[in-house]
User: What shape does this take?
Amino acid sequence: MGGIAKGYAADEALAALNRLGISAALVAASGDLAFGDPPPGQRGWKIRVDSCVLELSNAAVSTSGDAEQRLEVNGKRYSHIINPVTRMGLTSGITVTIIAPHGIIADGVATAVSVLGADRGMQFVEKHPDITARINGASDRPRARP
Assistant: This one.
């Protein structure tokens, strides 16, 4: 459920606020963020991702990684994100942040890119102009697409 459910929930909460006439809103669903219109007098909602400050509206952000959900066994760190090929938790230490038009997309792509790894993940992101990624990993060099 964590692969898309939080993004979907954030989208639905934002839609419910919109139906009530509240268009300037930010919804946080356990780390997944969905942004409506910017606050009055602002260009967007300001958030910090790593050392960057982003100003976003009508978009969503999701970060996947093992910073908070992991298991160590015999000195090896396993993520809560499962690689469907190996059926094991990821061991790369990758952290992926995705900005997309909707939370369900950001959440799903962040998990998928985590499994794909930095190189293949960035190749996927580059095929989707409405998605932006920041990828940091223990075994891959940091990369981003603005």
Q: What stands out?
A: The mean pLDDT is 86.
